[in-house]
Amino acid sequence: MKELAKMVVVLTVFAAVSAALLAWTNSVTSEPIAKAGKAEKVAALKRVLPPCDNDPLSESMQFGEGAGSMVFHVARKGGEFVGAAFVSSAKGYGGPIQVIVGVKADGTIQGVEILDAPAETPGLGAKVREAGFLRQFQGRQAADTRWAKVRKDGGEIDAVTGATISSRAVAEAVRRGLEMFAAHLEEMKAPKNASHPAEESER
Fold first, then answer.
1. What is the pLDDT of residues 101-114, one digit of tens each?
2. Residue 7 is assigned to a structural domain of this protein
3. In terms of domains, do 39 and 69 share one?
C-alpha cells in the first residue's frame, strides 16, 4: 500500500513538473512564433499586391458571417484604392490548402501564392506551389469566375499532373475569394475613413 502511495506521489509530481515545463516553453516560444507569422504574411502581401504606400495588414475589412467570412487587406496609394488581398482555403488531398491572392482595383489578379499546404504529397500535390501552376491565375478577372476550375471540371486551369485534387482545391479557394471581392469591391474602394476595420481572424 505504501509503495502504491509512493508511486502516486511520484507520478503526480512528474505530471506537475511536465505541465509547468510545457507552459514555460509555450510562453517563451509563442511570441516569436507570432512575430514570424506576421512577418511572413506581410512579405506575402507585398508580393501579391500592386505597389502601395499604406499598411494593408492593418487596413482590413471583413465580409460575410461565421465560417463563410473573409478578411480583405486593402492596398492604397496616395489615398486611392489600388487593390486588396485575401486568404482563402479549400480541402486538398491531405487537408486544407491555404492561398493568398492579390487583386488589383480593376478586378484582375496580381498574384497568387500558397501559404500553407502541409499535408500535400511531396512531388505531386506539393507541385501546386510551383510558379508555373500559379501563373495561370495571374491577369484573370474577378467579375466572372467560371474560369476558376480545373479543365476536368469545365474551367480553364490546367491541373498539376497526378494532383488534380490539390489543383482543384487551389482553384476553389481562389474562386471563393474572388466572388467575395467582386461583391464588396465598392465598399473597399470607399475612402479609408468610410471603411470598417476587420476583426482579424487568422486562417
1. 999 999 999 999 99
2. yes
3. no
Strand order in the sheet with 109-116: 60-63, 70-77, 80-91, 96-104, 109-116
Rounded-to-10 torsion of CA 86, 92, 96, 101:
-10
Burial class (CB in 10 A: 0-12, 13-18, 19+), 50: middle
1-17 confidence digits (pLDDT tens)? 666 666 766 666 666 66
The total number of structural domains in the chain stands at: 2
Secondary structure (3-state) at 120: coil
Instruction: Please give the pLDDT value at position 132.
Output: 93
* Helix and strand numbers, DSSP H then E, in the chain: 4, 5
pTM over 0.85: no
The Cβ-side half-sphere exposure at 182, using a 13 Å CA radius, reads: 15
- The partner residues of 103 in beta bridges, in order of sequence, read 84, 109
How far apart, in Å, are the Cα atoms of 27 and each of 13, 21, 115, 133, 148?
21, 10, 25, 39, 42
**pLDDT of the residue at 28:** 59
Structural domain for 155, as ranges: 49-194
41's torsion region: left (phi>0), alpha (psi -120 to 50) or beta? alpha
